[in-house]
Write a structure and sequence with these properties.
Bound molecules: methyl 3-O-[(1R)-1-carboxyethyl]-beta-D-galactopyranoside
Helix content: under 10%
Mean pLDDT: 96
Low-confidence stretches: none
Order of helices and strands: EEEEEEEEEEEEE
Number of helices: 0
Length: 150
């Protein structure tokens, strides 16, 4: 299949919201490289359905730095958060660079951090509705890149 390969977004200003050209397909990846700010309390990456405020969010990937560090995964549907899937482990340390890969599979997102599998998140909203990637919070981003199915 001759999918057009979308060029990366480089050094986007945060908060960032950008279109995913052609949307998501099984086998497509979104790869974000960046750095968690030293005093971070949280940041998030959303795969969302539209760029307006109140848009549905198919995947909310949300590292939090509190008494303990953990990552919240959730979806936002009809202006309501669903039930959180938490992992009490921090894949990314404050002040450190990271890579995050979100691979779209038929039934789930496969999330890898710094090249290692971190979490699977089953689809609650069809990935075919996703057209926007958003990044917000205490993070710097070097690039948001796209890898089409082989
Ligand atoms: O707190 O949790 C994820 O389950 C909420 C947060 C919310 C999400 C959500 O307030 O923050 O992380 O849009 C929001 O308000 C996001 C940024 C129960």
């Amino acid at each position: 299949m001759a999918f057009y390969q979308q060029q990366p977004f480089y050094n986007p200003r945060i908060p960032f919201r950008g279109p995913i050209q052609g949307g998501l397909q099984d086998g497509k990846s979104i790869i974000i490289s960046g750095r968690v700010l030293p005093g971070a309390n949280r940041f998030h990456v959303n795969l969302q359905c539209g760029s307006h405020s109140g848009a549905n969010v198919a995947l909310h990937f949300n590292p939090r730095y509190e008494d303990t560090d953990y990552v919240v995964h959730n979806s936002y549907l009809n202006r309501t958060w669903g039930s959180e899937e938490r992992k009490y482990e921090s894949p990314f340390a404050k002040g450190q660079t990271f890579t995050l890969q979100i691979l779209v599979a038929q039934d789930r997102y496969k999330i890898s951090t710094n090249g290692r599998h971190f979490m699977d998140y089953k689809h609650r909203i069809p990935f075919t509705q996703v057209d926007t990637v958003a990044v917000e919070g205490m993070v710097e981003v070097n690039s948001v890149a796209f890898q089409n199915p082989a």
